[in-house]
Amino acid sequence: MTRADDEARATVNLSTQSVSLDVERRHAAATDDAVATGALIDGTFRIERRLGAGGMGVVYLAHDLRLHRDVALKLQRTDGAAQDERALREAKVMARLSNAHVITVYEVGMHGRQLFIAMEYVDGGTLRGWLAERRRTWREILDVFVKAGRGLAAAHDAGLVHRDFKPDNVLIGGDGRVRVADFGLAGLAAVPLGRGGTAAYMSPEQRDGAELDGRADQYSFCVALREALRSARRVPRWLRACVARGLEEDLARRWESMPALLARLERGRRRRSAVAAAALLLLAVGAAGGAIAFAGRDDPRAVCRGADGKLAGIWDADRKRAIVAAFHAAGGARATAAWADTERTVDAYAGRWVAMHTAACEATRVRHEISEEDFDLRVQCLLVRLQDLRSLTHTFLRADDEVVAGAGAAAAGLPDLGTCLDARTLQARQSLPCNLGGPRNDHCVPRAETLHVTSIARDLTAFVAWPVDGAPGVLSYSAATGIATSMRIADDGTPVESARFAWRPGWTHLVSATGPAGPILVAYDAEGGTAAVAGADTVAGIGGLAEQRLPAGITHIIPLARAGASELLLYHGATGEVEWAHIEGRQIQIRPGPRWRAGWTQIMPFSADQTPRFLAYDTRSGALTYYRVEAGGDTTITHSGSWTEGWTAFLSIIVRGQPHFIGYKAGTGRFAVDQVNANGDDVILLESTRSPGRTHFVAFTLKDHPHCFSYRASTGEAFVDRVDP
């Protein structure tokens, strides 16, 4: 988190000076629970040194052994099972926050009787230290506080109240980015949590131990802003009035929310900037006798030049030459025409990207027409689109005949840059939660929450959704031992073992489908080319069922996304050969299918317009193709393109009746929920981080909510995540 400040005031600011009221007792407990340098937390985080200690726990600098990065790791003691559950729940809410002005939480869990929170480690200092460096202008102070306020607003949108906002809990990194930290006292809105906090910044209702909402943080925010402005000269009257309203004793007289306060601060700041600019213009014109005084000045737009430099290594002369060579090596005679079409399309796309990046900068930094927040959102969106372009050109570098043939269509299918213009929609997609009790909101996006982490056996090799007594369930299997375990998913999302079966070892795939008489389980051995089929009444003894021959070497067995269809797609990754399997009773009937590209590593079924479809993706290159299943068993490519490489799992889910999918990267733990339509257009609705290294995913529905079960083979942990519509 921070290196520049004194360690006793480290990031999450657990210094003893911040301890007040009823948290002093916890300070002694936190000190007693200190861990030694070199200790491992959760088998992942190695303690390097202690950063600070205070009323809510101890903060350490730790090293993430999996992702090779430094993190700030907070150990917080809890009192009893009820508080354990609440602390974990609230920490998970924090981990779901995705905002540039909130410290990123990577992982939460329990270490003995202590809650651990692994967070972003920021190289910088606190807001208090920044204010003490020199006298700041009111504009400088306001700029930093507005950014911190955006972090608070994001927390409020997620249902959190910080409860201890103050300059010590705001970090300013070496990159200048402002982040709100130390949610150690945070709680869900309208849930009493005692009076813990810092008395000097505490709202009247918090001092009284009442239920709190975001207006308590607004009060603390305004106390800190008033304190910071005392050292500034000529603070405008409108700004003092804004702060005074946020400090009203009566809740009803304060600003209705943080966004309302921030909007007024932004409006006042822009108005003052416009007045100041006009005054400077008049002075310059008067001094020179006319507007020609500016003739020799630097162009103010120069600050926004250079966006084309961001295309270096993505779409520049060197990259083009390399792609031309790859096209001619793979595409033969048609390579020239394919390249001409592709270059024309990508040139136009890259030109629009540069123009939009420059225009957004000028609208913010030169003409002051849009806020810094809107600018950040537009640039973040444009950078995602730049990564899409990078992935596509990376695919072109390793072109084969199929890539050359589809290059023009893939270039034309690059995501629309126009979506990066609407900052309001971008903001809604980024952080607006669904109002489940109110009217439908078109910008409502899914939220994902990890409900449970459970230790089960290590090195399991296959998982499949399998109901247990009418309830959702998951079936796990070990190819080494042949032991299968049936787990029922309880109403609260907990996986509970219900039965164990002794099957034969060696099955490489388990697949469930829906037949006329209920669920069907298919077990397949890719090496031996054998399979067995069981129903709900025979799954326990599948090892004793007669096996039948199937082609060996099948890499993917995927059920069609069609109600009541006991049909499977069989894909041979080495050759691209596709076959269809129809299950009749306990027999599998095979018929030939089309030939796809070889090498797909992920194939996900979904349905759009009542038609079965498949998304095929190559983890190594990022290439992807959408296939539509036609009536006769042929498939039609509806879209080809590319994403960033490295996605290791895709899982089809239904959210509000629409096809969505979960994407996951085992290397980084990146977790995304996308909405997809029949044309292959996808929109990322949610991006967050989960623990890395998960190897298997299974989707199921519980209480009308989509959930996913995932498993990490290296630790034997099972995770249950809920996606809220």
List its traits.
single chain, 725 residues, alpha+beta, Transferase(Phosphotransferase), domain 1, six-stranded antiparallel beta sheet, four-stranded antiparallel beta sheet, 35 strands, disordered N terminus
Give a written overview of the molecule.
The strands form nine sheets. This protein has a six-stranded antiparallel sheet. A four-stranded antiparallel sheet has the order 12-35-34-33. The chain has a four-stranded antiparallel sheet with strand order 13-14-15-16, with no helix packed on it. The protein has 725 residues and is α+β, with helices and mostly antiparallel strands. 41% of the residues are buried. Among the domains are: 7-269, Transferase(Phosphotransferase) domain 1 (Transferase(Phosphotransferase), domain 1); 300-431, no CATH class. The model is unreliable at 1-32, 188-194, 273-298 and 428-446 (pLDDT under 50).
Uncertain runs = 1-32, 188-194, 273-298, 428-446
What does the overall shape look like? globular
Q: CATH superfamily name of one domain? A: Transferase(Phosphotransferase) domain 1
What average pLDDT do the residues reach?
78
How helix-rich are the residues, as a percent range?
25-40%
CATH architecture level-2 label of one domain = Orthogonal Bundle
What fraction strand?
25-35%
Query: Number of DSSP helices?
Result: 13
Write the layout of secondary structure elements.
Layout: H1 24-32, E1 40-41, E2 45-54, E3 57-64, E4 69-77, H2 81-96, E5 105-111, E6 114-120, E7 124-126, H3 127-133, H4 138-157, E8 160-161, E9 170-173, E10 178-180, E11 187-188, H5 204-207, H6 214-229, H7 237-246, H8 258-288, H9 317-331, H10 335-366, H11 372-397, H12 401-412, H13 423-431, E12 447-455, E13 462-465, E14 473-477, E15 483-489, E16 495-502, E17 509-515, E18 518-525, E19 530-535, E20 548-549, E21 556-559, E22 567-571, E23 577-584, E24 587-595, E25 602-608, E26 611-617, E27 623-629, E28 635-642, E29 649-655, E30 658-664, E31 670-676, E32 682-689, E33 696-702, E34 705-712, E35 717-724
Antiparallel strand pairs: 1-2, 2-3, 3-4, 4-6, 5-6, 7-9, 8-11, 9-10, 12-35, 13-14, 14-15, 15-16, 17-18, 18-19, 19-20, 21-22, 22-23, 23-24, 25-26, 26-27, 27-28, 29-30, 30-31, 31-32, 33-34, 34-35
